[in-house]
Amino acid sequence: MSNTEPAEFDRDIAVRRTDDRTYAAELAPGWVVGGGVNGGYLLAVIANALRAHLPSHPDPIVLSAFYASASVPGPAEVRIETKRDKGSLAIATAELWQGEDLRITTTATYADLDGLHAKSSGFERVTATEPELPPLEECLSSTTAPEEVKEFVPMLDRYELCVPKDQFVWGGAAPTGEAVFTGWFRHRDREPDPLSLLQVLDALPPVTFGLELPGWAPTLELTCHIRHKPAPGWLKVTHASRNLSGGMFEEDCEIWDSAGRLVAQARQLARLPRA
Amino acid sequence: MSNTEPAEFDRDIAVRRTDDRTYAAELAPGWVVGGGVNGGYLLAVIANALRAHLPSHPDPIVLSAFYASASVPGPAEVRIETKRDKGSLAIATAELWQGEDLRITTTATYADLDGLHAKSSGFERVTATEPELPPLEECLSSTTAPEEVKEFVPMLDRYELCVPKDQFVWGGAAPTGEAVFTGWFRHRDREPDPLSLLQVLDALPPVTFGLELPGWAPTLELTCHIRHKPAPGWLKVTHASRNLSGGMFEEDCEIWDSAGRLVAQARQLARLPRA
């Protein structure tokens, strides 16, 4: 591939301004998961439109998304309203539409991450611990998933996810009995950045797969925090839930970069699969 | 107090419909904290307007709030747009305005909690652990805070917060060195319910108080999950942060009810106080 050709991910999240608050996108069929398009990919499309709309604030800092209906591959529109644009932070809402159907409504705070960090006091205190994973060569790669799984989840061809053998759900591993899912992750032809982290925050199978609850776990809301620009290389990603109750569960996601830094966090509220 | 007189909290969050999508409120001076009005109280005002607007969906399930500017006591307006109202869930946005100033922009999913629970499979798996607190009689109560503290934080008179002695920041306890804050909580004259939990999720001092960072820690975004209707009685509330870095920190809040159930969770992204 030549250096001038954009990566697949960048082609797939491209947007085109059509009026002073609207951006056209083409949702790529490669990001389909079962009956819909991956929610994390959709956030990256929306975030790309927000970035174009807020030129002095290039980075998503926090983004909250409410999922109204399942998206399908094809044309879509991102409609933006700036709510605040003052000083070092901008707040805007962005809705993803397909025809007459609202797919996702989001609100986000954008800023220049480097600028925010330069202005900070330098105080650091991270007690979260990096996930322990077997070396890459001992993990099983999503690229080896059976063809019938890839047909149902074409998204598996967009990246490589390498997981401990007992979590290899694509290969038919038995449920671990834990509400945890962890793995190494990288996009096929692109280094991570704040926009791609939004996709990664909702890329892994839900933790309910580990609990013999393999059905669809629809997300009600997902909030993403982008804390640092990630170093190049493989990412470590974890999903975990501590409160599966009353038909719903919270799922926390962390992304650690190759420098051992916690670069992004997400929490979602999802519905438990029906028994 | 007679049974027909509403509790202080209910009077303070009251709203009055002024047109087909707007509700008038009066932000009560009793909820002031330093230079602004408590963010959790403001969420309860907004949530009360949303409840009035979505009569078949009485309970907030998830609510995300972005804080645009500090509120002041006095008149305010909640402007609502319903985004989806189909089946058992409704999604709406609600903005809090004072004059020309946007204070908070929120999005929420509402439902009937009892109905959602009745339709669930009954699957339960809670690995989160209830906070260990000394008995109430061994804790120190916010009601004994010095007068000069109460003058700066009039909100302290709206509820009782009883904390272990080493966390008694109002009495001048030394920082604990931990990014944790825990206590017993109850509103002065009212049992908890889903609306009041929204206030409780942002009522405690920030965890940065434990780290010799006593300044203002402005919230960028706060997401609340209301998972169960709380049992009557005292609540246990915890705040904790695991990732203070790059000028920001995440703060997770949990509320446990008197029946020992994790009834609500929140996560916020806030800016670290300037050194």
From TrEMBL, chains A, B:
Occurrences of domain Acyl-CoA thioesterase-like N-terminal HotDog (ranges): 28-110
Database matches in Gene3D superfamilies: Acyl-CoA thioesterase, double hotdog domain
Domain of life, per lineage: Bacteria
InterPro entries: ACOT8-like_C, Acyl-CoA_hotdog, HotDog_dom_sf, Sec_Metab_Biosynth-Assoc, TesB_ACOT8-like_N
Domain Acyl-CoA thioesterase-like C-terminal: residue ranges: 142-270
Membrane-crossing residue ranges in chain numbering: none
Protein name, per record: Thioesterase family protein
Organism name: Nocardioides turkmenicus
